Amino acid sequence: xxxxxxxxxxxxxxxxxxxxxxxxxxxxxxxxxxxxxxxxxxxxxxxxxxxxxxxxxxxxxxxxxxxxxxxxxxxxxxxxxxxxxxxxxxxxxxxxxxx
Length: 99
Known about the structure:
Strand content: 25-35%
Shape: globular
Number of strands: 4
Distance between the termini: 29 Å
Mean pLDDT: 93
Order of helices and strands: EHEHEE
Strand order of the largest sheet: 2-1-4-3
């Protein structure tokens, strides 16, 4: 089932500095576009989460829901998950705020 949303959500660890959040969000977005080449860009929304464990938990929820997503791990930080990109998760992400 194809998500009807026009938004690509990128969740990023809001404990990172603003510049680090921007870079990690870009990495996740690029990985999403590579994995899902038929995705058509319309809108990107950056949302903050409370660290790696929340990113992993949210990614598990996306997997369970069957949504297209990618998780980005940063090799410079011991392969820590720093951002997740997901398409079609409007309802699942209502509780998060923009970064």
